[in-house]
Amino acid sequence: MKNKNIKYLILFLSIAFATVSCVKxxxxxxxxxxxxxxxxxxxxxEDALKGLNAAYSSLINExxxxxxxxxxxxxxxxxxxxxxxxxxxxxxxxxNSNVSDPAIYGWAFREYYQGIxxxxxxxxxxxDINFTDEALKNRILGQAYFLRGLYLFHLVNMFxxxxxxxxxxxxxxxxxxxxxxxxxxxxxxxxxxxxPPTYAGISGIDTTVEAGSGLGRATKGAALGYLxxxxxxxxxxxxxxxxxxxxxxxxxxxxxxxxxxxxxDTNENNSESLFEVQMSREVGGVGLSWGGIPVADWGxxxxxxxxxxxxxxxxxxxxxxxxxxNEFQEEKTKTGDLDPxxxxxIFYRKPGGATPIYQTTFEVQYASSPADLNDIYCRKYENxxxxxxxxxxxxxxxxxxxxxxxxxxxxxxxxxxxxxxTPGAYTYIxxxxxxxxxxxxxxxxxxxxxxxxxxxxxxxxxxxxxxxxHRFDDxxxxxxxxxxxxxxxxxxxxxEFNSYAIGREYFPIPxxxxxxxxxxxxxxxxx
Length: 527
Known about the structure:
Helix content: 40-55%
């Protein structure tokens, strides 16, 4: 995936726009014989792969993982705070996104649908193509189902009641969130049936060195992982439990020894990764994917690092909360040290020594500014280990890890607890704790009740997945926003929760969608 040819994306996007456009008077519709049309394009297995690659490319646009999606997923949690001078960004953390200003959330909404449209083209056109390799055809269709499921997962999870396009029509009626989850589950089921556990040893045009040897392509484990997550988010704990167990039983995933390897440009696509968005400074040009039709200058890099970067090294639009810093220090390792995930997650002034940050130290950089010296900054997904002076070129090549095996283990433990096997949950929680040398939970907190275990899982997930876009999803699905005591507790941990109002756990449907869709669209509550 890192070596996709940009010109294929330019070609395919021209076809995509031709496919979704409409002309009221059919007599006026003309086909330029000198240009490729959708009817003439979908002929070969190579065409199918190019179409699929275009569906993947929607993952690295401004609205998705080039920048906007991490912002939307991160800033509402109690692990993050935003001091951005840009109101559209700051308002995400304050539950105050403006219906009249679609910046960030509206871009994400638009580009999730762009990805769905491209996946739909593959799903509708590829079955009619004659393949000499049926396994390749299945892999392409399986990946298209996965991508449609992933884009729709984000829409249903963040925008609640949304249209669900399954064809190439321009307009689609709004569906309930329950209907949305049903389609997400169906897509991930279809993907899991068609996809291989790994691309190692598979020969095909999708696994050549030029095509990236299959790196970054969806697998059976990724589809099952997201299927289990969809079940979990809809509180179908038995199905979620059984699906996560299938991932574990594949026997191909394991936690990497160094926790930090999950957030740098080293050891990417490792044994812990079920699915990650491929970024690279070496592919394409130096431009960023701002949306629309790609141009030759576009690369495959991310603006996440500069957006979250520490003061003077980036924009510092997002920072960890001090609640997170403090909770990391509540429990020491077996040797009495701080949890090593703290140093991988947060830049902060460490007692007793110089703290490396980019090509200097924390103490030297902020010596003349007491406020900065005593502040804390994001370290995950930052290029701050010395190879770069700062993030000011906007071009981070760090892959975005969307689903890690640690998440599978803790979600499985949660499902065991929810289905009455609280003792069994200990085993899978401890697998995650063992990596960072934390004490045996069965010894320090034996015989927990189901309620106590649920609280413990909340703590474990808070630390393991801090700044990774999972925390607010957990808060919402656990019902903490409807629990007065829990909401008060959240406000004490992150003052941004004082701005929360019922319904603001979701983003607004962009006004443009309401105004232009031929079907009636109802705005989300409180907007």
